[in-house]
Specification:
The chain has 4 helices and 4 strands, in the order H-E-E-H-H-E-E-H. The two termini are about 15 Å apart. With about 80 residues, it is an alpha+beta fold. Helix content is about 45%, strand content about 20%. Helix 2 crosses helix 3. The protein has one domain. Bound molecules: zinc ion. The site of zinc ion has 8 residues, from helix 4.
Length: about 80
């Protein structure tokens, strides 16, 4: 049951990403051991309706899968965002 709920949450967030005009970047996620969609910290904050400092706290708390984009931006794995809220 928990898994199913998470899956729905992820799908909802993916739809939200599309709505906000964000273009998720597909890259390898070490934690997921799979290629997953990633968004920037700002986009992730918008999706979760939290401010960027809350998002930073989640990142620092190790709650999210984070990887570094080529430009130096942090990218947040959407799959890990599905577990929040
Ligand atoms: Zn991940």
């Amino acid at each position: 049951m928990g898994k199913r709920r998470t899956r729905i949450l992820i799908e909802t967030k993916e739809i939200l990403v599309a709505h906000k005009g964000a273009k998720p970047i597909v890259t390898w996620c070490r934690e997921c051991q799979a290629e997953t969609k990633k968004v920037t910290v700002l986009q992730a904050a918008l999706l979760c309706q939290v401010d960027q400092s809350s998002m930073q706290a989640w990142i620092q708390g190790g709650q999210l899968h984070v990887s570094q984009a080529a430009e130096g931006d942090l990218l947040i794995c959407l799959a890990s965002l599905g577990y929040q809220r």
